């Protein structure tokens, strides 16, 4: 068996189709055979004449074969009907329509056929009953009695001749005289009468002509005569009437008159009709049953032939419908390769052809759409890649960028801009920028936009100060109006640079230079001052030992020099931070040890240390100890005698970051001081150099990290120092600039 | 209701038609009795009686003009006690009877001649009493046992022409006897 091509829906597979064809042929042949055999059997009796049908095995064979064929026809039709019912139960496509059509066909054939059968049965029964009813019987009985009486009358008319012949023969001894006696007696009889003389059941003499069959019949009748025939001395038959007399000698004389052939034929017809009538009357029920059987056979034949025709016609209708339904379902599933294999010149053929054309067109359109879609997808991917590339660039740069379309809606915003303007991408993109931005920011951008419109090239760059959160931050804003090739306005791009970091860096660098020069300029005269003072003490110790002014002044000079030297050392350390020496070490252990030191030196403060993550971190132990010491000094100074400090060392190995948090519950940092917190020589503490947090910031920067401050909850401040726990890919670390995050940088 | 009754009658009647040899109604079992006779000089004269051959329905059918024919088979055998019997002769004998309503006589037809009978009793008597001559071959062993085996069956029922076309496929009655046996006297 060859499978149908993919996507090709055929009415049925080859084997199935062959099976159907065979079945159709079988049903057709069976129907024809039933019809032929029925016709043949019905006419066999007529052509068979005197064939003994009741014993003819051929008849039985034909009958049985006919019954078998009817049963086979019933089987085939019933099988088809059950198959349709099964298909309907399985919810196969077209089964319901087919079963409905078959039911309609069967009803259309069954109802009139059954009505016809009932009517024919009643008519047959009524006809037979009326035929065998009293009137017909009486008529036939009367007819045959009339015939008998007529024959009897004719026979009685022959009695004188028979009597005279018997008397004459009784007195005649010479056999040669018998003809004369008979002739004499025949003259008394009607014309055409013959006289026969029997002795010992054999004809002895005769006068007149009589046919051999009549003579043989008369002889039989004479033989059957016993004695005087119970007084009845006439003989009648369907060909003759006769009268007989027995002579005293025992011989019998018969006067017989053959009937004219037409009269004999009529009498035979009457006798035959009489016989048939009585036989029919005797076999009344079997005859009716036989007729009804034939009617049943014909009815069954019609019903099943009609059923089969209904099945055939239903299939003719439902097959293309089923094909179309299956094809439509395939198309609904998205299979446009479907093609219906059905050829017909009727409307269904046209419909199937249209369906095939439709699927072909749909397939072509789908192909075009897929190609277009693929092209669009490629274009979209390219655009998306480019967009992602641009977004990556925008997200990578330290400049905040906002793109606004021609309608004033924010089309794009990078993370720096989100952070700087304190807005989120989700809340910004697609919305009007005047609704998203704060009033001050909106007015600033709008003002710049106006200026840009007037500027050459549509671009303008300005430095503006904007309030972000609670801080006033200096921005360098570059605003560019976008125009297409035709000069149509497409939107604008605003780039923001936070200048506060750069300005702070510049201040730190300036302070470093100042510190270096001050340290250099101060340190140079300090040593001669110290030496001179010490020399004065040694030289005039003896003479001015009792002079408190001398002693106090020299001590004051030396003390001042010592203080100045310490101050110069601090300046020098800040100006020239030692070279970073990174090594793998136990960062939590180092910090824990520092915390333990403070726990003993500041017993009034509750010191707590926490560790999260593995200990191994690359860091400069000297620098980190110094930074942590500065932070703890600040915390202790802020708390005074009482309070709590929590130091948390966190190592996020996955992110490759280490963080040191120093949280206190002191008074916190006033908002106004936060901008300058990490600047050198900024200190609100009495006696503070203002270099502690600047050094922390420098150390964090040298480690490639940052330090930032935030408010503690519920009170106090938290200083977070974060730096990479591993070497970066390029191996370099530290920018030389202080790593400060004043809270505006994302965590 | 009438149609249903006829349908049942048809099915009842047509069912036996599917079985060869069956009949419309089953009469009392017919038998052959009083088988006797003599055997001498190349022939055997066998006498026997057919009993229960005519059911009341058959008698009524006979009176209605239906011709009824019986076929009998007579076999003559020499009996061997310790060996197979030797067939000596066989004859099939047909006898039929029909009522002639016009002549009011029963016409009996035999292979050896026809006979007219005045009434049904005489006709039935003639149809059931047989004396058949069977030509035999071989010598008749005096004092040795010989017997005749007889079988009879209803051969055909002569319906009128229209009825033959209706009942052409079936026999109205099924009458058949078992084989009966009777000793034959030797000279």
| Ends apart, CA distance between termini of chain B | 68 Å
Query: How many domains make up the coordinates of chain B?
Result: 1
Identify the strand order in the major beta sheet of chain B. Answer: 6-5-4-3-8-9
Backbone structural class of chain A: alpha+beta
Helix and strand composition category of chain B: alpha+beta
For the record, give the distance between the C-alpha atoms at the N and C termini of chain A, rounded to a whole number.
Answer: 73 Å
By CATH reckoning, the class of chain B would read: Mainly Beta
Say how many strands of chain A there are: 20
The best one-word shape of chain B is elongated
Q: Beta fraction of the residues of chain A?
A: 15-25%
Overall mean confidence score, pLDDT of chain A? 79
Beta content of chain B: 35-45%
Flag low-confidence runs of chain B: 15-25
What value does the average pLDDT of chain B take?
A: 79
Rg of chain B, Cα atoms, Å: 19 Å
Describe this structure in words.
The complex is a heterodimer of chains A (747) and B (187). Chain A is an alpha+beta fold and 747 residues long. Chain A folds into 4 domains: 8-131 and 283-333; 153-270, YNR034W-A-like (Profilin-like, 3-Layer(aba) Sandwich), CATH 3.40.1840.10; 504-574; 579-741, 2-Layer Sandwich (Heat Shock Protein 90), CATH 3.30.565. Chain A is built from 18 helices and 20 strands. Chain A has a 6-stranded mixed sheet with strand order 14-16-17-19-18-20, with helices on one face. Chain B is an alpha+beta fold and 187 residues long. Helices cover 19% and strands 44% of the residues of chain B. Chain B has helices at residues 2-14, 56-63, 120-128, 161-166; strands at 31-40, 43-51, 67-78, 86-100, 105-110, 113-117, 129-135, 146-158, 180-184. In chain B, the strands form 2 sheets. Chain B has a 6-stranded antiparallel sheet with strand order 6-5-4-3-8-9, covered by helices on one side. The longest helix of chain B is centred in the N-terminal third of the chain and has 13 residues, at 2-14. Chains A and B meet through helix 1, helix 2, helix 3, helix 4 and helix 6 of A and helix 1, helix 2, strand 6, strand 8 and helix 4 of B.
